[in-house]
Specification:
69% helix, mainly alpha, 393 residues, four-stranded parallel β-sheet
């Protein structure tokens, strides 16, 4: 029966007019899908409040039925619905106006109905001048089935939505926990960085303090060097003098040990013969002066040392260039207070060095031509007498 009805409708001649149909021109069965599909509920409520007399407790279905009933004939409500639909779907109406026959309009509708949003295509197709009753039934039937599909899909999507909501809640909780961990980690990192910054500042302050101390020490060292330019030379002489004193003490201990092991006969042998052969000079005292002996025989050096240390002085010796280097003479001359130069056993270079140094520094210097112990002792007595005279004066 339905197929016979559709075939009969298809056999009807297509409309040839150019006037577009209005809402109230549509069949009564078209008002419900048009208003339900083409207008959202918020807009329906607004139109109902504006053009209908309401009691205030109407639900959405009641408002929908009231508007569908009002759209069946031309009135103020139908005209408001017509105006709102025309403004809402003006682009779709312009697109459908390019179609000039029923078959082309049917193809255009099928293309647009395959898209997710087809409300504008529904309104443009039903109000088209080439839309007859047959095409209207086909369009409304397809919309009816689409609504069934949309309902089923909505139920599926509602279930999926609930799953997504639950998943979203779980993700929100996980995100909150992760955010708390990140916040705690960030705070820990900030505290650690602050501690590092404080430690770095302390190290920097310590480095600056050390650099300041170093600069002050360097400045003080420069002042000392400028005030005492001969400080390195005097330090070297002091070390050499300490070494000579240590060597002197060692030799004295060795001499004492040897004298203790001499035979008893040698110990009681009278010393008159020595006094008769070598005239003993008068007793002299040089305090803690430093006496430098330049030249002399190598075997007589212990006798020279004994004579000098017997006067209470410290003994230094330089061979005058035979084994000792001439460069070693200058530090010894600088450390000495008295100089005894035995000219017969030194080089010309050593002689002129001694003479020039003593002259420049005003030091007492006694020259001995014959290298012997007696001559050395006489020169020592002469030098001691001269030092005593200078001290008295």
């Amino acid at each position: 029966m339905a197929s016979t009805c559709c075939a009969a409708l298809a056999a009807l001649p297509a409309s040839t007019g150019s006037r577009r149909r209005r809402l109230w021109d549509l069949g009564h069965h078209a008002h419900c899908p048009v208003i339900g599909v083409c207008l959202p509920l918020s807009r329906l409520r607004e139109l109902a409040r504006r053009h209908l007399v309401l009691q205030g407790d109407e639900d959405d279905y009641t408002l929908h039925c009231s508007l569908v009933t009002a759209a069946a004939r031309r009135n103020r409500v139908a005209e408001a619905l017509q105006k709102d639909l025309e403004q809402r779907f003006s682009l779709d109406v312009r697109s459908a106006a390019q179609v000039k026959c029923r078959d082309s309009l049917m193809a255009w509708w099928r293309t647009r109905a395959a898209q997710p949003e087809f409300a504008g295509a529904l309104w443009a197709t039903l109000t088209h001048a080439r839309c007859d009753e047959w095409l209207e039934m086909r369009v409304l039937g397809q919309v009816h089935m689409l609504q069934h599909q949309v309902g089923a899909a909505h139920r599926v999507e509602a279930g999926r939505h609930q799953e997504l909501v639950a998943e979203h809640q779980a993700l929100l909780r996980a995100y909150a926990e992760a955010q708390q961990r990140v916040t705690a980690w960030t705070q820990a990192q900030a505290r650690e960085q602050q501690a590092w910054a404080q430690e770095r500042m302390q190290h920097r302050a310590a480095v600056i303090a050390l650099q300041t101390q170093l600069a002050q020490a360097q400045e003080q060292l420069q002042q000392w060097q400028l005030a005492r330019p001969d400080l390195p030379e005097r330090e070297a002489l002091r070390q050499r003098l300490e070494a000579q004193i240590a060597r002197n003490h060692a030799l004295q201990r060795e001499l004492q040990q040897r004298s203790q092991h001499l035979p008893a006969v040698a110990a009681v042998r009278p010393v008159v013969s020595t006094a008769e052969r070598v005239p003993k000079p008068a007793a002299v005292s040089l305090g803690r002066r430093v006496v430098l002996c330049v030249g002399g025989r190598g075997g007589s050096v212990p006798q020279y040392r004994q004579a000098v240390e017997g006067c209470g002085a410290q003994f230094l010796h330089h061979d005058g260039g035979e084994e000792h280097k001439p460069a070693q003479l200058e530090p010894q001359l600088a450390a000495a207070d008295l100089v005894i130069c035995q000219t017969g056993c030194i080089s010309h270079d050593a002689y002129w060095r001694v003479k020039d140094h003593c002259k420049r520094h005003g030091k007492r210097c006694v020259f001995v031509e014959t290298p012997s112990r007696s001559a050395f002792e006489r020169a020592l007595a002469e030098a001691a007498a001269g030092e005593g005279t200078n001290a008295t004066a």
